[in-house]
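Reading is simple: each integer encodes one residue's backbone shape. The lines below illustrate:
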Amino acid sequence: MPPFTTQELQSAIAELDQAIFSHEQWYKSLLRILISRVPAEPADLRPDAHQHCRFGQWYGNVSTALLRDHPAFISLGDAHEKMHVYARTLLQLVSDNKPVTTGQLDQFENALDKMRLEIQSLRHELSEVIQSQDPLTGAQNRASLLPWLREQQALSQRRGQHCALAMLDLDHFKQVNDKHGHLAGDRVLISTVQCLQAILRPYDRIYRYGGEEFLLCMPGTTPEEAREVAERMCHAVAAQRIQPNGSDHILQVTASLGVAMLDPSRSVEASIEAADNAMYRGKKFGRNRVVTEY
């Protein structure tokens, strides 16, 4: 999933929760029709009924790109449309004063369960992303770091593909906080992560490793490519012109980066340490530079 802010994720979940509520209200109305034999809503008898219920109207006009572009969103739409096909069969039988068989009811219930499963799976995935995300910068937090790196290490071992790590630390970041305040420091961190995300690929990962320290994981990246990407990130960070909210000051920062490969012959922790040691050598050699382990 592409990177999104915590606020965007929370908005998507809130929007999804409202859609779930609308669907459950529709389902209660359906039960009332089936049990009490009251007239069905004309829209529910139409071939395109899935587009006219409140859930369907929401689905067709979803405002949050995070939901609209999510792969599971398409599956949810298919499940919702299929559920309405079976619902329409039941409602038409009621309208024609005909009996509903247990088989027909089971078909509808199975389709309903499938739709509910798709909804909850999507909601659960969004919730998991929030839990694994740093609330300030939108980078991944350290809770999911080691499991992900071990998975990438196993892939590297099985397929023989490269995976590069880069440890990035903002130079003299304490001076930013001391001189301009922590809100300005927060703005620098947020801007820097956005800067890095613009360079990295969607499947690369940025982890907030410490206060102003970030670990970047780049699957399928050779040592030469990793060095090149790290140099681009180093230059891009230095080129930032960051203006904190409510301030006339323009802040500039630099970063030191250490690059190492995720080596299957050693522990994940050892590979992280190698990138970290390379980064500290960059600090020692004058900062605002890239140093490789290899």
